[in-house]
Each structure stands twice: as C-alpha cells, then as structure tokens.
Amino acid sequence: MLLNVEALAKKENLTYSEMADAMEYLYKLDYHPVAVKFFWDETEYNNFKAEKVPGPKMTVCQIALASRMNNYIVKANADNLMCGNAKTCFGFRAASDEEVDGHVKYTADWDFAKECLLAKPMLPLGKLKGFMTAPLGKTPVEPDVVFMVVNALQAYHILNDYIGGKKVPTLQFNHTVNSAVCGGMAWCYNEQKPNMNTMCAGSYTSGKTEKGELNLFIPGGDIGALAGQLVRRTAKYGGPSMVGSPGQEWPGLHVCKKCPMVKFKDAE
After folding, report:
1. Alpha-carbon torsion, ordered 140, 141, 143, 149, to 10 deg
2. Residue 267, pLDDT score
C-alpha cells in the first residue's frame, strides 16, 4: 500500500491531512472530503484567508464543488448565494410564502408544501456571517461538518466506521423534499449526528453529481474517531473492505457474496 496504515494505526491522534489521506485511499473516494466551517463572528469571517471566493452568485453545492474537486479553500456569505433554499437553511433569511410556491411541485398541495418547508433543518436566523469549504486534508480550521459525495458502498463503510469509532449501534438520517446539501449540513451541525441523503434537484444539476452518488455528512468533531477506526480496522484485517471476508483492498468489490464461482487459488 502507498499508505502506511500500520504507522497511522499506532497514532493517538491523526492530523486532518492524515485523515483525508486514509479516507481517500482506503475508501477509494472519487472526491476530496470537504471541511465546512460556519462563521458566527463578522470579524472572524472577514479576517479568514481563503484561496477563492465566488465570482458570480452560486449555490452551496457549486461552492463545495471547488473544494471537493479543485482542492480550493473557499469562503462565502449570503451575498454570494443565488440559492434561496440555502439562504433559508443557513438562516440568512426567513422562510416565506413566496418560497412555498417553489415547493408545491414536490407535494401538489400548497399547505403541505409550507409544512415541508418549515420542517427543514435551519441554522439560527440572522446569526451566520459566512462559511468556509475546504478539502479536509488542507483545512486551516477545525471543521463543523465534513461533507462527502460517495457511492452507496462507500457510504456503507464510512457509516459502519462511524458506528465502530463512536460506539453508536444504529444511525438515523433526515431527508427533506429538497435542500439536500445545505439542509444536510444544517441538520448534521444542529443535531451533531451523521446525515445521509439523496441528491436533490439542486445538488444533482448544480453540484456536479451526475453519477447517482449520495450526500454524506459527519460532525466535524467526530471525523477523527471515524478515520481512526478505519485505519485500526484496516491494520487488523489487512484491508478496508467489510464485504464478504474482511481485509480485501477494495471496499465493495462487485461480486456476489460467498459465490463459489468467484474464488481464486494460488498460482503455481
């Protein structure tokens, strides 16, 4: 392996760079995990040194994309957002009847659409000053949330390692009619629990997620326990896979479990 799993497994605390390296290599992630930081102080936000800021207004999905795929540290505030759903979920504005009109397509019922809107996870109204997204491996601050775009079997392994690392036997998630990424971040932050949801219309079309992936969110304070469990488990079994016999290199090798026709023997 290119990664020294044995050495990492002996460390009491991993750096964010080591966490990212372990997760990207062992889970075979397609994208960088994204560290998300919420700024509640205007001065702290203004003084934060980012590599990039949005030019035109963007969605949260597009802003996170720059960290997930282009390795940039980005900061943004309400003035940078064109996505009304994100403004509401991040507490930059209050929910309104006008916003309900855009939700009726999900319910075919205006009153129930309003109920669905008001049930979304939201950060405290008027408190957030801005936010940062950065590749986990180069985050300059402790993240509030770590956001990942993963396939189903990657999610399976990540969440199982969360369970093992945090000693929490089951997990439950929050799905809303849209606002998958912004609402997913808000719910993870508010509840301090992992979250997983499908793409919404915005995250599918604006977030460059065309391959049917899932959105996954881990509380920032828990990412060390998750990554630590991953490297300890891999060191014990020889590989990260939990599918079939443990210890294979690829998490989610696409073969039938215990199929007698898929069997290898030593070469002569």
Report:
1. -10
2. 84
- For residues 222-261, b (16+ Cβ closer than 10 Å) or e, as one string? bbbbbbbbbbbbbbeeebbbbbeeeebeebbeeeeeeeee
pLDDT tens profile 54-66: 999 999 999 999 9
Residue 217 has pLDDT above 90, yes or no: yes
Residues contacting 89, CB < 8 A, separation 6+: 120, 121, 122, 123, 179, 182, 183, 185, 186
Whole-model pTM above 0.90?
A: yes
Question: What is the percent of the chain where pLDDT is above 70?
Answer: 95
How far is the C-alpha of 31 from the C-alpha of 43, rounded, in Å?
31
Whether the pLDDT of residue 257 is over 70: the answer is: no
Q: Is 129 exposed, middle or buried (0-12, 13-18, 19+ CB in 10 A)?
A: middle
Q: Angle 223-237/16-26 helices, nearest 10 degrees?
A: 50
Residues 6+ apart with CB under 8 A from 180: 197, 198, 199, 200, 202, 203, 215
Computed over every residue of the chain, the mean pLDDT equals 93
Q: What interhelical angle do 180-191 and 60-70 show, nearest 10?
A: 80
What is the per-residue pLDDT for 212?
Answer: 82
What are the backbone dihedrals phi and psi of residue 218, each rounded to the nearest 5 degrees, phi first?
Answer: -125, 135
| Residue-range domain boundaries for the chain | 5-237
